[in-house]
Amino acid sequence: MIFKGISKTFSTIGEKQYETIGAFWDEMSDIYGLENLKGLGYNWTADTIEYVIGLKQGDIAGLNCTVELPDTGWVSVKGKTDELGLIYQKIYADGVLRYEIETFTEDGRCEILYYR
Q1: In degrees, to the nearest 5, what angle opens at C-alpha 85 toward C-alphas 83 and 88?
Q2: Coil, strand or helix: which one is 47?
Q3: Rounded distance, CA 23 to CA 27, Å?
Q4: C-alpha to C-alpha distances, 22 to 70, 102, 110, nearest whole angstrom
Q5: How many CB atoms lie within 10 A of CB 74?
Q6: 96-104 mean pLDDT
Q7: What percent of the chain has pLDDT over 90?
Q8: Within a 13 Å sphere around the CA of 87, how many CA atoms are in the beta-carbon half?
Q9: Half-sphere exposure for 79 (CA within 13 Å, toward CB)
Q10: Which of 44, 52, 94, 102 has the greatest CB tally within 10 Å of its CB?
Q11: 46-86: per-residue pLDDT in tens?
């Protein structure tokens, strides 16, 4: 599977990534609509994460990143967007991730696909 989009690097110190990646989502949602987007987190370091936002269908304008991902072995978790921190606490309780793909809906739902 190939993931294409606009990539930025965010700090994970103090869990600030929820706020800063959220602002990135808001910026892209204003242009493309929330439900047309998907986000990929990967390449974690001790204090950063690379995050890419792309379109579910087609290529996003300003594309600057292409990531080759595994086709199988993904786990899906669905929940409420306002409980995202709790969802990730449960996911990370079993260890670190190699990749995560997030999608969100206007009615406050989310789906996390993750790969260890």
Answers
A1: 110
A2: coil
A3: 6
A4: 25, 12, 13
A5: 16
A6: 97
A7: 94
A8: 19
A9: 16
A10: 52
A11: 999 999 999 999 999 999 999 999 999 999 999 999 998 89
Sequence-ordered list of residues with C-beta below 8 angstroms from that of 27, at least 6 positions apart, any chain: none
39 and 55 Cβ atoms separated by less than 8 Å: no
What's the whole-number average pLDDT of the chain? 96
Q: Name, in order, each residue with C-beta under 8 angstroms of 84's C-beta and a sequence gap of 6 or more.
A: 18, 110
pTM for the complete prediction?
0.95
List, for residues 10-25, the tens digit of each pLDDT value: 999 998 898 999 999 9
- CA–CA gap between residue 88 and residue 61 (Å, rounded): 29
